[in-house]
Amino acid sequence: MYFVSIDDDVCTGCDACTAGCPAHILSFDSDREKAYVSGDSGDCMGCEACVAVCPSGAITVMEM
């Protein structure tokens, strides 16, 4: 099982991760201009596609 998290302090609001996540568990809050985990973080497949497209390094994927 994998767990994904996004550091709000590091996220620049580019929204690249939401399109890059094949599990569709990431969303973008246009009011805050930040990405967030909208689905069950446990649905993360551990592929790290979101990590690869995040220019600020705000996303962490951990194996639990």
Elements, N to C (H/E): EHEEHE
**Can you list the strand order of the major beta sheet?**
1-4
Which fold does the CATH topology refer to? Alpha-Beta Plaits
Kindly, what is the distance between the CA atoms of the first and last residues, rounded to a whole number of angstroms? 5 Å
Q: In what range is the share of β-strand residues?
A: 25-35%
Count of individual domains: 1
| Major sheet characteristics | 2 strands, antiparallel
Detail the poorly predicted runs: none
Total helical elements: 2
Average predicted local confidence, pLDDT: 94
**Secondary structure tally: strands:** 4
**Which descriptor suits the 3D outline?**
globular
Radius of gyration: 10 Å
Structural class designation: alpha+beta
Helix percentage = 10-25%
CATH-defined architecture: 2-Layer Sandwich
Query: Can you tell me the CATH class?
Result: Alpha Beta
Give short descriptive properties of this protein.
64 residues, 4 strands, globular, single chain, two-stranded antiparallel sheet, two-stranded antiparallel ribbon, Alpha-Beta Plaits, alpha+beta
Structure description:
- With about 60 residues, the protein is an alpha+beta fold.
- It has a single domain, classed as Alpha-Beta Plaits (2-Layer Sandwich), CATH 3.30.70.20.
- The protein contains two helices and four strands.
- The strands form two sheets. Strands 1-4 form a two-stranded antiparallel sheet. Strands 2-3 form a two-stranded antiparallel ribbon.
- Strand 2 (about 25-30) and strand 3 (about 35) form a beta hairpin.
- The protein starts with a strand and ends with a strand.
- The mean pLDDT is about 95.
